[in-house]
Amino acid sequence: MKNIIIKTTVVVLFFISIFVNIVLAANLSDANEKKKQMNEKVTAMEHEMEKKEGELTNYESKVTEKELTEDPANKRLLENFFQVQYQYNEKSYKDRFTKIKKYVNKNVYGQLTAAGIPDTPKIKFENVIKDMQIFLTPSAEQNVTGMVLLKTQYKIENVKNPTMTQIFKVEIQDKQIAKLETVGTVGESISES
């Protein structure tokens, strides 16, 4: 009888062991399935986050470009500088060199006054801006570069010279003109009358 009790106990323990293993296996496979689903969700969220970050970066760069190129302060800076520097007469000729200081950095000011500030000639003259066009683009360093087309007419003692078109390459940094380069000058031909 002892033998039967031992055999019965072993068989019961065997079935309990099998039942426990089945329950553990079911829990483990369920946990693995949940882990797999969570990993898939995390991956999907990471891809969505990368997509949103890309969209945000793209939006930020477009906003920055637009802000830089359409900033009225940048256009006003250039307009004011060119008005002061290139629209003058015998009364305002010499003063313009001190007035431009607030629009340009030290390098550009030095470039414009390298030959010294000339004395005002003792004749009647004026330079008038006929047209000004400003084209701005952002640069890689978050500065603004651009071109300015300036059409002027010089008059000496009531004699008008032909209209001149000057093309300037400019760069704005820290709300000042940091580079100013004359790219070219084109004049209208003189016609005989």
Walk me through what this model shows:
- Strands 1, 2, 3, 4, 5 and 6 form a 6-stranded antiparallel beta sheet that branches.
- The chain has 193 residues and is of the alpha+beta class.
- Strand 5 and strand 6 form a beta hairpin.
- The longest helix is centred in the N-terminal third of the chain and has 69 residues.
Quick gist of this model?
This protein has helices at 2-70, 72-86, 96-99, 106-112, and strands at 88-89, 125-138, 144-156, 159-160, 164-173, 176-187.
Shape: rod-shaped
Percent of residues in beta strands? 25-35%
Number of strands: 6
Backbone CA Rg: 39 Å
Let me know the average pLDDT: 85
Q: What characterizes the major β-sheet?
A: 6 strands, antiparallel
Per DSSP, the total helix count is: 4
| SSE pattern | HHEHHEEEEE
Low-confidence stretches: none
The helical percent reads 40-55%
Structural class: alpha+beta
Cα distance spanning the termini: 143 Å
Give the tags.
193 residues; alpha+beta; 6-stranded antiparallel sheet; 4 helices; 27% strand; rod-shaped
Secondary structure blueprint with pairings:
Layout: H1 2-70, H2 72-86, E1 88-89, H3 96-99, H4 106-112, E2 125-138, E3 144-156, E4 159-160, E5 164-173, E6 176-187
Antiparallel strand pairs: 1-2, 2-3, 3-4, 3-5, 5-6
